Amino acid sequence: MSIFVDEKNKVVVQGATGHQGVFHIGEMLAFGTKVVAGVTPGKAGQEVHGVPVFNNVGDAVDETGANTSLVLVPARFAKDAVFEALDSGIKTVVTITENIPFHDAMEFVHYAKYKDAVLIGPNCPGIASPGKSKIGILPGSIFLEGNVGVASRSGTLTYEIVNSLKEKGIGQSTCVGLGGDPIIGTTFIDALDAFEKDKETKAVVLVGEIGGTAEEDAAEHITKYISKPVFAFIAGRTAPPGKRMGHAGAIIARGKGTAASKIKAFEKADVKLAKFPTDIADLVEEYS
Amino acid sequence: MKLFEYQGKELFDKYGISVPNGKLVKNEKDFSGLNFPCVLKAQVPIGGRGKAGGIKSANDVKDAKEKLSQILGMDIKGFKVEKVLAEEKVDIKKELYLSITLDRSKRMPLIMVSGEGGMDIESVPDELIFKEWVNPLIGIQPFHVRGVISKLKLDKEDRKAVAQIISKIYKLFREYDCELVEINPLIISVDKGVMALDSKVIVNDDAMFRHTDIVPELVELTPLEKDAKEKGIAFIQLDGNIGVIANGAGLTMATLDALTHFKGAGGVFLDLGGTDDPEKVMQAFELMKKAKPKVIFLNLFGGITKCDTVAKGVKSVITKEGIDCPVITRIKGMNEDAAKEILKDAGLITATTLQDAARRSSDLAGGA
Questions:
Q1: How many structural domains is chain B composed of?
Q2: Domain boundaries, position B58
Q3: How far apart are CA B81 and CA B335, in angstroms?
Q4: A113 CB near a chain B CB, below 8 Å?
């Protein structure tokens, strides 16, 4: 098993004919992902690596049975693309696009919930279940099939950590890049719940960052609901404090959001913390 | 983008929210048409200006002129005061707090209102700050407004005025893609109704393309940061002396953390992002050189990014222009062996692990 994606996902790529689209359709096909369609308005009839391109998601779904979308369109068109996917019956939407206005993200995150769809991202590298499917821009070479689930708010840092797991022979069930934006669809809590239920996953690695309270929320959730061992790394222990969001930011955070607060919360939840990103692999190895 | 108080108040005015009569003043003549006493307020994109002497009252034109000369050019937490807003003084009956911001955990706009507005709002206990979350799919509804104002001790007329302001602020928050709209204090005046005495408005940078009426001012950036922003490179200057170049924000932050662990200190934070375009790498390296770090630490993980392409960019800058500080590199991922050869060839130090590289960089920089 795995979480969120496996060999049953049939992927339509929105923004298929751009530079990124063409490159990553090739990479995904090489990984074994079932990429069945591309969408670029006005480009129906073209092919990308043999994958047919349609004018809209509805046509792609009708013709190919696509059930999953990868959104690669530019930021200002991303809201429209996600809404189109959701309204065409797509149940898993992976949004890679960065710099999406957060009011747009807020709207489509809630619409996805209303449509009972899984939304991953935005501003994320995507998701991969090794041996099954990879939906996104994660490099295929870093993965190995196995039993560790990875959920991360970062991009390259995830690659680094997953790669170091692989070098120790530790495989992964699913690696999900949740995205670095303030507003994201799938959260640490959603990923933890899914990993807890997944029989194949024996341990979970979380890669967090300063800002927001996602790590503190996750820690609280782990104490209450997660029985599998959890390992974590938090980036930004020495980063400069972010911009201040008026008094309102301070009132909501009430001291949360800093690396110190996140580390304390994870320690309290019995999560094993790594000092360096590459140490995570050592911690997992020691445990198993 | 953080707006100045006067820019925020222009938006308030556009949305029908009362603000005191006032205008930007540069000299004595500008005070014509203003009634005294008035208040002069330094326009800086940072809080705490009152305590720093950036707000002064004036009783007449002569007094105002003198106070203006004191405030203009003043340095408030690193920001030089270039604009001053003069406003007619309003008699205050009660100070409230009102804000709408983004709640990241709930992924919804959050309305907060308190009857205890003013300077010390952050120490007001949670039970005296009334909150309502608005699902963006339905937008603000009367029940949200009732939810926050029913708990305020106000008479009927003031309550109605505050309710209207909450709806208007939400509209502004939504239509201008704001991260924050904050009014502290929102006042019940003695004779002029309910008014916004201050404004804090932050517009989401990613949505600025929809708001061409707002003129962006890059006041919070250093000259090098401004240069970087124009080139589309993520670049932040810090206090230390080690220049960090990495790809991806998370990896860059983790690199700074590793340096701190070995008593080094990051001086510049340069995130190459997903690029391996040699041109962009060259631009980034040139920016880094201008920041004059004692050591440069290049930490790269090649996933999709090809390490050797980045290495080629680095090598061409160094062979063309030379470099006057040591460069420690740590390369991992796609085409790492080829990249290491290129960098060695350029005379750079290649370390094997992140820890090793961080330790050597910190030692060469001579500690924090």
A1: 3
A2: 21-88
A3: 51
A4: no
